[in-house]
Every structure is written in structure tokens, then in C-alpha cells.
Amino acid sequence: MAKNWSNIRLGDICQTNKSTYSLSEKWDYVNYLDTGNLTQDKVSDYQHIVLGQDKLPSRARRKVEVDDILYSTVRPNQLHYGIARKLLPNTLVSTGFAVITVDKEKANSDFIYYYLTQNDVTETLQAIGEQSTSAYPSIKPSDIENLEISLPTLEEQEVIAHTLRSLDQKIEVNREINHHLVA
To answer: How many domains does the chain have?
Structure first.
């Protein structure tokens, strides 16, 4: 562990599933994201649902805010996770996600996202899920909250997160360039 880093339980710096949609709120429409439509921070599709006309899936209940981390509680090894950078209006996500809201006075959302998406953390959560009593590997939000993390100062977290995000953006630009070269 680096100097001045402290071990902390994730649940002490994050809140899980903070806000749930109620039908009494009577939104006109919902932009719904299911677990299968988010993989490694890439959204493949939102379902636009007009309430009163279309049926809202029973799992479309979790509200999301900018910088929330979405982490599928089903089969963690399938990498259905992401961080909410931009949101469509009236976005709801599946109850199959743990929606993790980071306390910004204690931690940087990107830093926590990169921690949670490391291979060894994903493998740990998958191993926990394989011990579950359900028919398929699944974890509980408390499994995420109980993870221990070595946490640097907030300033160091921001520098590390910025570097990792910049590298991810460069990789994505290169991927798009390569895709256009092949096409």
C-alpha cells in the first residue's frame, strides 16, 4: 500500500441503490437501460417507453444520477458495468444493476469505477456470485459495499482517474480509426 493510502470499506464512501422510481411520479416516458445493453462502459441501446401506451418492465425502477456507477449484480464476469457520464432525461435502469453513488467529498467516482472494473475485483465478485443460492451467479449490493479498497487522497484519486480516463479515450479514438480503415 502506498504511503498515506488508507484501507476503507467501499460502503463507507458509497451509497447503493439510493433512489427508486415510483409509478406515482407519473413520468410521461422513460429511457430504460437493461443490464444486457451496457458492457464495459458502452451502451448499445436504450428502450424508449411511453408510459400509458407502452408497458414499463417491472425491473425498470432504479434512478441514476451523473457519475453513478452501474454494476450488474448478475454474472459479474460478463462485464455489464459502466459509469453515467451523460444521461437521457427520465433514465431508469434495471434492478439487475447496483447503482453506486460515490460520496464526492471522500472519493472520486472515476477512481472507484476503475477499482471496481479491475479483473481481480470482477473475479472476486464472480466467485462470491457462484456461492449464491440462486440458479445463476449473482451478487448483492452488500457484496460490493463490503469490498475493501486502498484509497489515496482525493487529489491523488483525481490524478489517477484522469490518467486512466485519458487512456481509455485514446484507445476508443484508435479503435474508431481502425474501424474506418477496415470499412
So the answer is: 1
